[in-house]
Amino acid sequence: MSPELIADYQCIIGENPLWHPIENQLYWLDIPNGRLFRYNPRTGEHENFYTHGEEVGGFTFQPDGSLLLFMSRGAIAIWKDSKLTSVIDEIEGELESRFNDVIADPVGRVFCGTMPQESQPGKLYRLDLDGSITEILDGITCSNGLGFTPDLKQLYYTDSMKHEIYLFDYNQGTGSISNQRVFVTIPENDGVPDGMTVDAEGYIWSAHWDGGCLVRFDPFGNEERRIEFPAKKVSSLSFGGEDLTDIYVTTAGGDNKSEEGAGAGALFRLNLGIQGVSEFSSQIDV
Fold first, then answer.
1. Catalytic site includes residue 194
2. Is residue 152 predicted with pLDDT exceeding 90?
3. How many whole angstroms from its chain centre is CA 266?
4. What does the pLDDT read at residue 13?
5. Which region holds residue 210: left if phi is over 0, alpha if psi is between -120 and 50, else beta?
6. Which domain holds residue 27?
7. Predicted confidence band of residue 107 (pLDDT cuts 50, 70, 90)
């Protein structure tokens, strides 16, 4: 099945597609200037409903439906009714960086990674329920896609420029991760692993930046299928729809379609009869 074009806002870095379980809408963003979008599949309408004006690297949904935004300089804030409420103003050491990819865990904490800087590599942090933040990994080339195994005992984590997706043991009670090992290594000529998700069968989906495709791996790291897109920079994906069988995919490079492809910077949808799982909501108290 060919990907279906849903919306094209010529995003420079289209990212973080996420299904809103309360509204039954798909949200996504354009990182560099913090443009946030949403799509209603029942009406076919979509819109750029908010522009932050600065970088927004990722977001989660709070239980009341508000958005928890992860921004530049390590700033984190809740967006509701066009108002921002700060959770963390900035993180010392991240003033020249930004958050990149985030995921809420079953308890409502958020794993959130940062981009590398000239002075230091990227890091992976954990934002806890009380709004405190803890560094849990250092030396990351480019912190990216995360996902949980179906039994919620392990966590996948992507370090893009190392071309590796790792697997960690995950302790739901404490939020700690341990026993890092390589789940799969992406060949240099196959693009860079970017955003990812895990479906209901426990298969891992990885978006390949500069690879122009999605790749689905079985739980042993074997490639099960590959889906090509009309864009070089396939950035992320998420399952949505009322039965979670719609796969929404973002791409980047919309400011240079002549080189990046006609589908660069757009939102696409696939339906392959494969079911996803609901993403968790963050539950950060402010």
1. yes
2. yes
3. 15
4. 98
5. left
6. 4-271
7. very high
